[in-house]
Write a structure and sequence with these properties.
Blueprint (H helix, E strand, L loop, with lengths): L2 E7 L4 E4 L6 E4 L20 H16 L6 E7 L5 H12 L6 E6 L10 E7 L3 E8 L2 E9 L5 H8 L4 H6 L3 E4 L13 E3 L1 H9 L7
Parallel strand pairs: 1-4, 4-5, 6-9, 9-10
Antiparallel strand pairs: 1-2, 2-3, 6-7, 7-8
């Protein structure tokens, strides 16, 4: 089986697992202009060949020259659109820095033990409520990150899917970006350290 390189796309950078530890190294491209509510990696498209070359050099320094044997296991924010996922896939696959690319959303990586659970996360654009079952996203609701009601989201979490009304699954608060402290008492809070520990040993067969 191909070896995996775990990666996390956050609100403002990319984290790549170091090959010799569970630590993650920051990859970023200097000189990008931030645009409100637009993920930073959209800027890669303006200088795509240069950006891909910079990433390949970054990865080569960490993993050596034989990058063709690796699969990039990329965790993306929960509100990543299908078009954004396609861009991410094509950007990294065509960078020459991997054999293949596999993606999953953050909510799908929160628990390896629960068959079904509720996930609440916050990106730069949205608060995202999702019901995950058997590693699949069954239902989702989105709320403007600058204007939302905790009470409304918690109420919606009880009715997001018919399964939830009868099974009462656990609620995971994805606090990876340290922006959901106001939800911490309403579920199982996942800290950045805990999340990265889960991702460091990710199984690409489940992506």
């Amino acid at each position: 089986m191909a070896k995996a390189i775990p990666m996390i796309i956050t609100n403002n950078n990319i984290l790549v697992k170091h090959p010799d530890s569970h630590e993650f190294c920051v990859f970023s491209i200097p000189g990008l202009h931030e645009t409100p509510n637009i993920p930073f990696y959209h800027q890669y498209a303006s200088k795509i060949a240069q950006s891909q070359s910079i990433f390949k050099s970054f990865l080569k320094e960490m993993y050596g020259k034989h990058l063709g044997k690796y699969v990039l296991a990329i965790i993306v924010p929960d509100d990543t659109s299908r078009l954004e996922q396609i861009f991410i896939n094509e950007f990294f696959l065509n960078s020459g820095a991997c054999k293949a690319v596999a993606q999953m959303k953050m909510c799908q990586a929160l628990s390896k033990d629960e068959a079904a659970y509720i996930s609440i996360s916050k990106t730069m654009r949205n608060v995202v409520l999702q019901y995950v079952k058997s590693n699949e996203i069954i239902a989702s609701k989105f709320y403007d990150a600058s204007d939302y009601s905790i009470e409304k989201i918690l109420e919606d979490s009880k009715r997001i899917h018919i399964d939830v009304e009868y099974n009462n699954p656990p609620v995971y608060i994805n606090n990876f970006e340290m922006n959901l402290d106001d939800f911490s008492e309403f579920g199982i809070a996942i800290t950045p350290k805990a999340f990265m520990e889960k991702i460091a040993s990710i199984d690409i067969e489940k992506i």
